[in-house]
């Protein structure tokens, strides 16, 4: 695409947004920045779009929002009158311009005669998923860039089941987006006019009230919570995001009375002024929460990302310091608590099923199997877990119990079809209450899990290969592993290999089919229960290396993990020369 022509087209557009025009004028002398902003249309994947905000066809702004919304609207029209009447639910988080972008989506989709439902205040992504199902809408949109830096925003699209769009629907929307000749001239309607015509409905507290009612039905130990609620100290930070009210309301509804919200991070702010990174997977996000935790002697620290679909947890260790748990550790703790309590109450787990991604710890499999549940792996991305929940509900072969991924996404109530930090927060708090009632800490509970099932250690290593030949190197690297079968790593024999690109698993000379969508991913299983996975990024010039080991002690596990990782990196360097 001729970036200069696109830039000049924008500059010549008389009605260009004033703020964007000011930025464009400042960019005049920065050819590299202009080229990055105007060379290609912003990519729209199965999850939608995510990019830096600013002028240009490769940036998020009101015009690229309108282009995507026009494509979605045309897709909905193609599905018939019922789809138009059922319409689209739209939510937004605390990021800069999220509310304005949500309104642009409303004005574009409503202009096409499609019903639109807009939350009257910022709302977490899982509540958008719930609202699509609760209102029987045909689709949903949430304006968020999850835990990315402040300069980013995004546009995520959901299907009628409340899960992220499947690839087939995304491809059709992309085709309709490509029909838009000029994103600057997409027609929109005034919001007040849509309201008068009955095409726009503002969503009040009814949706979240019903969400909380359904969530309360999942509480396992109300009496136990009431016994320790006065003693259990919880610290929570929404990291300036959309989680504050929903999480606090949920905790209160579960009976938790000592919830200390980090005051500096309580209010929504798209600049995230007190957070180095608004990502609860990272220790830096807990700095202020740890300070408050020390003041109140907190039993557990909770953090949610800006759109409140991811939950992070920190707990006191025996030395009195707060330790930030990994996503795999949180998943193991929540899963073990959930299934153990269901079993204790005599609830049927015989047909229970747990979903995890292929790069999530194998500890979850050991726990779920112990309690009699089936475990099924999915590709990386919570949309694949959502699809599996839908499938088992339709077949009625299994009862969904829990779904999670190593990147801090958890779900145990299937009335939502997206990872849900509100759900995870109340389950984590109840788990902390359970250990508190026994004069134990969550750290004690984690050690008990390790003692019972083995010490599991995992790591994620990203190898960035920039430059024009970066993509070629990644392709060459994956081909090197495929063309020269790996027999051993770090002196440990390879037991099985799964190639998701050709949907084949090979183990001991036996080949079986993998029933998952095709993906450029390789996973190796070693005979000592170690494993590693190679997964090229679809959006960045990097390849991700996921590694997991099992040992009889934490120290042995850490040493083994480092040994496997070093051997893997050495093997990669050999292939790349």
Which tags fit this structure?
about 575 residues, alpha/beta, Alpha-D-Glucose-1,6-Bisphosphate, Chain A, domain 3, TATA-Binding Protein, 3 domains, eight-stranded antiparallel β-sheet, 23 strands
Plain-language structure description:
The protein is 41% helix and 21% strand. The protein contains 20 helices and 23 strands. Strands 16, 17, 18, 19, 20, 21, 22 and 23 form an eight-stranded antiparallel beta sheet that branches. The chain is globular, with a radius of gyration of 24 Å. The two termini are 35 Å apart. The mean pLDDT is 95.
- What's the overall geometry? globular
User: Termini distance?
Assistant: 35 Å
Assign the CATH architecture of the largest domain: 3-Layer(aba) Sandwich
The mean pLDDT is 95
* Beta-strand residue fraction: 15-25%
Q: Could you name the CATH homologous superfamily of the largest domain?
A: Alpha-D-Glucose-1,6-Bisphosphate, subunit A, domain 3
Radius of gyration over C-alpha positions, nearest whole angstrom: 24 Å
Q: Any low-confidence stretches, pLDDT <50, length ≥5?
A: none
Broad CATH class of the largest domain: Alpha Beta
Structural class by sheet pairing and helices: alpha/beta
Total helical segments: 20
Total number of domains: 3
């Amino acid at each position: 695409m001729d970036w200069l022509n696109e830039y000049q087209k924008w500059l010549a557009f008389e009605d260009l947004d004033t703020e964007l025009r000011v930025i464009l004028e400042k960019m005049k002398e920065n050819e590299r920045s202009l080229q990055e902003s105007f060379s290609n249309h912003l990519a729209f994947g199965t999850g939608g779009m995510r990019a830096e905000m600013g002028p240009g066809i490769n940036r998020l702004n009101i015009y690229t929002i309108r282009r995507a919304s026009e494509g979605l609207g045309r897709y909905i029209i193609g599905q018939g009158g019922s789809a138009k009447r059922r319409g689209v639910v739209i939510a937004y988080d605390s990021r800069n311009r999220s509310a304005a972008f949500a309104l642009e989506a409303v004005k574009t989709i409503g202009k096409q005669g499609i019903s639109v439902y807009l939350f009257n205040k910022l709302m977490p992504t899982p509540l958008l998923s719930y609202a699509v199902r609760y209102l029987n809408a045909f689709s949903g949109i949430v304006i968020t860039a999850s835990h990315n830096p402040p300069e980013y925003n995004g546009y995520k699209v959901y299907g009628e089941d409340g899960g992220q769009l499947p690839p087939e629907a995304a491809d059709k929307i992309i085709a309709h987006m490509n029909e838009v000749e000029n994103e600057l001239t997409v027609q929109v309607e005034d919001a007040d006019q849509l309201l008068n015509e009955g095409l726009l409905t503002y969503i009040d507290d009814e949706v979240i009230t019903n969400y909380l009612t359904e969530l309360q039905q999942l509480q396992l130990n109300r009496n136990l919570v009431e016994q320790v609620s006065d003693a259990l100290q919880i610290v929570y930070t929404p990291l300036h995001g959309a989680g504050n009210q929903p999480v606090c309301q949920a905790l209160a509804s579960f009976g938790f009375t000592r919830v200390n919200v980090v005051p500096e991070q309580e209010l929504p702010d798209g600049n995230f002024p007190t957070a180095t990174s608004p990502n609860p997977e990272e220790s830096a996000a807990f700095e202020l929460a740890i300070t408050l935790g020390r003041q109140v002697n907190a039993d557990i620290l909770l953090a949610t990302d800006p759109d409140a679909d991811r939950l992070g947890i920190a707990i006191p260790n025996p030395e009195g310091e707060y330790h930030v748990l990994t996503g795999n550790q949180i998943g193991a703790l929540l899963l073990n608590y959930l299934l153990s309590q269901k079993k204790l109450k005599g609830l049927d787990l015989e047909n229970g099923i747990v979903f995890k991604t292929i790069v999530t710890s194998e500890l979850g499999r050991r726990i779920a199997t112990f309690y009699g549940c089936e475990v099924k792996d999915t590709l990386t991305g919570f949309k694949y877990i959502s699809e599996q929940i839908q499938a088992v509900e339709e077949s009625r072969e299994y009862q969904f119990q829990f779904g999670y991924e190593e990147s801090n996404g958890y779900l145990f109530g299937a009335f939502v079809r997206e990872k849900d930090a509100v759900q995870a927060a109340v389950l984590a708090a109840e788990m902390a209450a359970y250990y508190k009632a026994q004069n134990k800490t969550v750290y004690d509970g984690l050690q008990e899990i390790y003692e019972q099932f083995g010490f599991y250690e995992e790591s994620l290593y990203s190898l960035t290969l920039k430059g024009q030949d970066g993509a070629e190197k990644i392709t060459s690297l994956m081909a090197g592993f495929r063309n020269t079968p790996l027999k051993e790593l770090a002196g440990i024999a390879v037991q099985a290999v799964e190639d998701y690109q050709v949907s084949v698993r090979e183990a001991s000379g036996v080949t079986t089919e993998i029933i998952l969508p095709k993906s450029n991913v390789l996973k190796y299983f070693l005979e000592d229960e170690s494993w590693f996975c190679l997964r090229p990024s679809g959006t960045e010039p990097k390849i991700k290396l996921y590694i997991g080991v099992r040992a009889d002690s934490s120290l042995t596990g850490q040493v083994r993990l480092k040994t496997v990782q070093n051997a893997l990196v050495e093997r990669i360097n050999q292939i790349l020369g």
